[in-house]
């Protein structure tokens, strides 16, 4: 199972501590839910995190022409335009546009808009190729999907949540912190079990 998790996350690191921290974080519930926007991430060696998204519409209710990620911070640390427009956000092709949006419940939002009905994520299809890089660490965020007719669904996926960026070259500290939190939870849980048994 850990090989699956490490492959799914795609960790780019040189140490088992960081890999262990990522596995603990995933097992603690920070991985994407089984929603229609499936997120994953890679911890880069320079302290940044690259987030990747797949729009999975195989079990959807409508064609998706717009989708959005909502964040718990006001100012993202990446240029929210797509790379075709001079920004930092990768989109699958020129049929999609990325820009900052208006959040419904979060403090900021990243919008992805299909520029042509032929580019929509049609029922029964998936579309990959959405990504951006941030210094904010991963956690659970809200996504929203919309049809051209105004239908919408929402769910949870993975994305940047921590407002304190990881200092360059100190990504191992973030991994160590995640491992510490996960380890403390296990020790605390075992302690409660021992007390109940006595």
What features would you highlight for this structure?
198 residues, alpha+beta, Immunoglobulin-like, 3-stranded antiparallel beta sheet, globular
Description:
With 198 residues, this protein is α+β, with helices and mostly antiparallel strands. The chain has one domain (2-192): Uncharacterised protein YcnI-like PF07987, DUF1775 (Immunoglobulin-like), CATH 2.60.40.2230. Helices cover 25% and strands 31% of the residues. The protein has three helices and eight strands; from the N terminus they run ααββββββββα. It has a five-stranded antiparallel beta sheet, with no helix packed on it. β1 (37-43) and β2 (49-56) form a beta hairpin. Mean pLDDT is 77; it is low at 1-35 and 180-198.
Count of folded domains: 1
**Main sheet makeup:** 5 strands, antiparallel
The CATH homologous superfamily? Uncharacterised protein YcnI-like PF07987, DUF1775
Query: What is the top-level CATH class?
Result: Mainly Beta
Poorly predicted runs: 1-35, 180-198
CATH hierarchy: architecture: Sandwich
Shape: globular
Kindly report the spatial arrangement of strands forming the biggest sheet. Answer: 4-5-3-7-8
Number of DSSP-assigned strands:
8
What name does the CATH topology carry? Immunoglobulin-like
Q: Tally the helices: what do you get?
A: 3
Helix content: 25-40%
What is the CA-CA span between the terminal residues?
34 Å
The secondary-structure class comes to alpha+beta
What is the oligomeric state here? Answer: single chain
Radius of gyration, Cα only, in angstroms? Answer: 18 Å
């Amino acid at each position: 199972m850990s090989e699956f998790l490490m492959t799914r996350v795609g960790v780019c690191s040189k140490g088992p501590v960081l890999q262990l921290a990522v596995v603990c974080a995933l097992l603690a519930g920070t991985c994407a839910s089984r929603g229609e926007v499936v997120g994953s991430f890679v911890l880069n060696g320079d302290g940044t995190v690259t987030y990747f998204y797949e729009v999975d519409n195989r079990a959807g209710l409508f064609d998706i022409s717009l989708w959005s990620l909502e964040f718990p911070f006001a100012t993202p640390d990446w240029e929210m335009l797509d790379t075709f427009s001079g920004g930092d956000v990768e989109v699958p092709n020129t049929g999609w546009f990325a820009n900052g949006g208006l959040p419904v419940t979060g403090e900021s939002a990243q919008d992805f808009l299909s520029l042509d009905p032929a580019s929509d994520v049609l029922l029964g299809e998936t579309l990959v190729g959405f990504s951006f890089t941030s210094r904010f660490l991963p956690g659970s965020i809200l996504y929203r999907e919309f049809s051209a007719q105004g239908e919408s669904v929402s769910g949870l996926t993975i994305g940047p949540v921590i407002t304190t960026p990881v200092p360059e070259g100190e990504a191992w500290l973030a991994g160590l912190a995640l491992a510490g939190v996960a380890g403390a939870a296990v020790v605390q849980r075992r302690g409660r079990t021992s007390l109940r048994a006595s």
